Structure prediction request, 245 residues.
Amino acid sequence: MSNIFLQKYNAEDYLFNNTNYRKGARITCSFGLAEGYRIVNGKYIWDSIRLHSGVDRSGKYNSRGKKLSKNAVIAPFDFNRVEINDYGKNHVYGSLIRLFNDDFGFEMRIIHMDPKDIKIVSGTSIKQDTLIGPAGNYGSASDGAHTHTEFVSLKNTCTIFDDILSNQFGVIALKEYTDIEIFQIYRTAGYFKDSNPEDILKHFKTLKEKRNVIGVCNRFKYVYKDWFAQTVVTRYSSELLFNKL
Prediction:
């Protein structure tokens, strides 16, 4: 099946050069252990570490307020079903677009787009390269216009994605974060700069518990109990799966 998927999207070389999504948009936060925040007296302080469930890419404006040209959100693949949820701007997600590819067993989730700007509708199917809308800043956890993107298996795992990762990266894609990797990442955060190894590993364990992680956890993917389907599924890094898609 993975060969059929790769051929369909002209990616036998795993580069996915013909697959658009946020082409040209800068990645601001990668999947897995990444820069995170603490909430102190109601304020977000970005000096910590989180277990990031997707990949963030910059949106309409940069830090100086200059409009960017690469804000269009384009469907990277065909999707059989579309589901759009508007939770309101005070919700952590704001909005959630769920795109289902039943043929190949995965779901794509897009978060923080402003509902009034979304160009697709629930209950339909869409083709690759369909315009979904512009990146947004909708939701309480959004800090500037961007998209937060998640790829999730429809069953426990997505065999196609596992094959792609294995063929690109080998057995490392199947292994847990090592203690050395965990310490190196945590030491980049100011809050943990002088923490001892025991406290760092304890924090990492807490992060996994909060994300309902119950299986392998690394920078490529993690196995967890999904709060939507209430079943065990796998999240994947779109950045590593699809050559920075």
